[in-house]
Amino acid sequence: MTYKLKVFDVRCDRCGNTFEEHKEFKDPEPDCPRCGSSFTRTILSGFQTKIRAKDPYEYIDGYVPDPKQKSVKSFANDRRRGGKNTV
What we know:
The chain is of the alpha+beta class and 87 residues long. The protein has a domain at 1-46: Rubrerythrin, domain 2, CATH 2.20.28. The chain contains 2 helices and 3 strands. It is elongated and about 80 Å long.
């Protein structure tokens, strides 16, 4: 049976070395490969967190709609009243 291990960043408290380790979160902390110290800790990265947004595409392309812009519905109202369609 094969298990998929996650990649975690681990930092050594003694020498400050940061390295990647393939492990489960509940597994014991590995020893530092540089100094051999057992005083290491797992660093939680930002990509492992879940972000809830009203518009999921807002976080993909960085686009945030401007509340001052007219919506498509208001363009239709302007056109019916003799206004120019600016789209």
